[in-house]
Design brief:
Elements lengths: L13 E3 L3 H12 L2 E7 L5 E8 L2 E6 L21 E5 L4 H10 L3 E8 L4 E7 L5 E7 L5 H8 L8
Parallel strand pairs: 1-4, 5-8
Antiparallel strand pairs: 2-3, 3-4, 6-7, 7-8
């Protein structure tokens, strides 16, 4: 029976780490994520975990037997084909400093963007890329087009 007060997000990214337990601790320390679910096997190894941030969820897991196509960037020669975008409500610069102090590599320092957000990009110890963004001002479509040279069109 489902809990009507609990709503799962429509999208939940899943991130693979060679050391899931260390990842859970680091993500909590560096980014402020909170563990919400941790499933372990009979030997205490993490089989699956979930962490929350606001109303978002990210799955954390390790290599899975038979799923050779799924790996951490650390075990795939540093290759990374995705990044996770996380909304921060306040103090994006302080959030960046917290991540830096915890050992995150900051690829892009906090910077105001043409679309009204202030963002930074961090890399965790296993090579996953994370973008953090805070809305700092409202920007009209015309302002975005003028500042970027791009054209914004709503899907029909």
């Amino acid at each position: 029976m489902s809990n009507p007060e609990f709503r799962r997000p429509s999208f939940i990214p899943s991130v693979t780490y060679d050391d899931s337990r260390a990842a859970l601790e680091w993500l909590q320390k560096a980014f402020g994520f909170e563990p919400s679910e941790v499933l372990t096997d009979g030997e205490g190894n993490i089989a699956h975990a979930e962490m929350t941030w606001g109303d978002g969820v990210v799955m954390i897991g390790g290599p899975w037997p038979g799923w050779d196509w799924l790996s951490s960037p650390a075990s795939a020669g540093g290759k990374n084909t995705q990044r996770i975008h996380v909304r921060v409500e306040k103090d994006i610069d302080g959030h960046c400093e917290r991540a830096r102090k915890a050992g995150a590599k900051i690829l892009k320092e906090p910077e105001d963007q043409f679309y009204g957000d202030r963002t930074y990009v961090a890399v965790d110890p296993e090579g996953h890329h994370w973008t953090f963004a805070q809305s700092v001002r409202e920007v009209s479509r015309q302002e975005m087009e003028q500042a970027s040279g791009l054209r914004f069109k709503q899907p029909e």
